[in-house]
Amino acid sequence: MKTRLSLILVTAATVTVACGASFPEPTQRLADAQGARRSAEEVGANNQPASQLYVKLADEEMTKANALIKDGDNRAADRMLVRAKADAELALALAHEQNAKVETQQAIDKATATTTTNAIQGVQK
Amino acid sequence: MKTIGALGLCLGLASLAACAPSVPPQELINARTAYDRASQGQTVQTDPADLHTAKETLDSAEKSFADNGDTPETRDVAYAAERRIEIAETRARTALQEQRKAQVVAGMNAAQTAAVRTTSAALSLANQQLSTQEQQLQNETLRRQDAETRATQAAADLARIASVKQEPRGMVITLSGSVLFASAKSDLLPDAQAKLSDVANVLAKESPDSKIVVEGHTDSQGGASFNQELSQRRAESVRAYLVSHGVASDRVTAQGFGPGRPIADNASAEGRANNRRVEIVVSPASR
Asked: What whole-number percentage of chain A has pLDDT above 70?
């Protein structure tokens, strides 16, 4: 009887530890998410339709994570910051893509103009 | 004892329920779909490293689901996996854009280089032509300067030995009769031959197409018929000398005018001396 009671107590204690009451504050994860968010902003992700949504999601997730940290739920905050970082990095990638599209189109326009100019000059010679 | 047994049974069932796979969360379904799409597209070739990282995240989500079921952790890892897959796809598209841009720029640079080469060749040809024209112009200028110099020199040479005037009928070289001939004679004096030799040289070299008329003139003393014949003989004597010294015979004619064309008053000795003369009239070929 005593042995069985001890087994139940040990199991309960193990479950309590596994719940992560002592999970550290995710400062590095927060810094990573903020860094990714800044990088996205620097390449204009805030102003491009394709990436704007993900910047907004990252902002919301970081806000939630800070609230969770304040409440002492560091584990949930850590997971929320994983989402925030992923969203910010996707925003950054989309902004890069948009910039590359614009630059490619500019190059095509310039090449077309150059070809036209050369052709006109060739006719005039 | 019975109560304890029931509690143990409940704990066991709860553990079994926690370990058994349940319906996958939407995040995991999305991530799987995204990976299937990416693994069949251009991302595999263009950005395999990012796709591999995304697959590892997806595997973590799968493991979490297999081990723990639909938990918040499973959902968050699956969410991150889907984003990683989208990032890989986006970077692959970006790389293709950059490749396209590089191709366009390379093509444009090649076209520009070709255009510059063509323009440069045309410019070089134009410069060569200009240089040739400048050389021709310079040669022509030199030739004209030389011709003018020789003409000036010829006029100066003639001016030293005879009177030279420009008249409507052409250049008139006047030689005094007393210098060329003895009185009433038509044979050239030795000194006269030297002077005529200079005149012949000038006429032979300069204006080779011009026509030359040697005119003989006398004063009014003596018979008109004699003077007419004398002037003709003297003109022919000068003509013969010029032809013998290089002036083409078909360019030169001789004509005597006797006293008919005086240039001074025959009443004075000086006037008669001036009237006794030979005029060599040089006119352009077109006249």
From this structure: 81
**B104 to A97: CB separation less than 8 angstroms, yes or no:** no
Q: A68 vs A59, A64, A73, CA distance in Å? A: 14, 6, 5
CATH superfamily of B161-283: OmpA-like domain (3.30.1330.60)
Distance CA A116, CA B156 (A): 66
Q: How far apart are CA A48 and CA A61, in angstroms?
A: 20
A86 in reach of chain B (CB within 8 A): yes
Q: Where are the domains of chain A?
A: 23-110
CA distance B95 to chain A (A): 8
The answer to whether residue B72 neighbours chain A at the CB level (below 8 Å) is yes
**Cα of B91 to nearest chain A Cα, Å:** 6
Q: What is the mean pLDDT of residues A83-93?
A: 98
Extended beta strands in chain B, E state: 163-167, 170-176, 211-217, 252-256, 277-283
Which residue ranges make up each domain of chain B? 23-147, 161-283
Closest residue, chain A, to B98 (C-alpha):
A100
ipTM value, please give it. Answer: 0.81
- CB pairs below 8 Å between A and B: how many? 82
B275 neighbors B217 (Cβ within 8 angstroms): yes
Using an 8 Å CB-CB cutoff, list chain B residues near A83: 76, 79-80, 83
Query: Which of B71, B83, B117 to mutate: most A Cβ within 10 Å?
Result: B83
Q: Which residues contact B237 (CB under 8 A, 6 or more apart)?
A: B181, B186, B187, B188
Domain A23-110: CATH class, spelled out? mainly alpha
Give the residue on B whose Cα is nearest the Cα of A88: B83
Count of Cβ atoms closer than 10 Å to residue B207 Cβ: 19
Chain centroid, CA B176 distance in Å = 58
List, in order, residues 6 or more apart from B2 with CB less than 8 Å away: none
For A33-52, write each residue's pLDDT tens digit: 999 999 999 999 999 999 99
Between chains, do A107 and B108 touch, taking CB under 8 Å as contact? yes
For residues B234 and B278, what is the distance between their CA atoms, to the nearest angstrom?
A: 8
Tens digits of residue pLDDT in B84-104: 999 999 999 999 999 999 999
